[in-house]
Amino acid sequence: MSRIVSFGAFLLVAFLVLGLTVSGPPSGVDRFVAESLGNGWQDTAGDVASVGSAVLGPVLPVVAALGLLVAAVVVRRRGRPELTGLLLRATLLLAVCRTVSFAKPLFERTRPRVYPDFSFPSGHVVSVASVGFTAAVLCAWLARERLRLVVALSAVAVFLAALCRVLLDVHWLTDVVGATLGVVGLGLMTAAALRLLPARGPTA
């Protein structure tokens, strides 16, 4: 347990340090990636990325949270209070992970192009990473044999969300990296506090 919390704290500190470091002018790496991928945001690639961002964005954790709450009500009616508690704690975990986006005013980073709101961290990537992290934790409890698959699918979803935001030229590379660091770091610490980690296997 202490290792989980320590690693989570390390990632959260890394998130904060990265945010403070990039709050000024963009780094060479950020500029290179933006110039390489972000110039076509008005072309076909941008159209595809817009669709991807609509799906892999803030709507995702809302749908996931509602699904978890409905599932909690259903299993409660079926007389499975332990599973109900697990689903409710997972919903809280998801909500806490999503709050990483609220850190944007701390850094006040500007976007690569004119666009509303601050840039660091990417709210879209935070949303997808929050759902992916919560899904992995639940899978560790309920279907451990599929954990690797769920982690892999979550990683792919986070990557695609990040790629879409960079292609649209509304986020720097470090914005999407920071979003991932923040969610995993805060997620590990919160999951440990909610007694979701380490997972104890299937819940009766």
From TrEMBL:
- Transmembrane regions: 55-74, 86-103, 123-143, 150-170, 176-197
- Gene3D superfamilies annotated for this entry? Phosphatidic acid phosphatase type 2/haloperoxidase
Q: Which residues form the Phosphatidic acid phosphatase type 2/haloperoxidase domain?
A: 87-191
One Pfam match, by short name?
A: PAP2
Enumerate the UniProt keywords alphabetically.
Answer: Membrane, Transmembrane, Transmembrane helix
Keyword Transmembrane helix attributed: yes
Tell me the protein's name. Answer: Undecaprenyl-diphosphatase
**Organism annotation:** Actinokineospora iranica
Starting at the broadest rank, the lineage of the source organism is: Bacteria, Bacillati, Actinomycetota, Actinomycetes, Pseudonocardiales
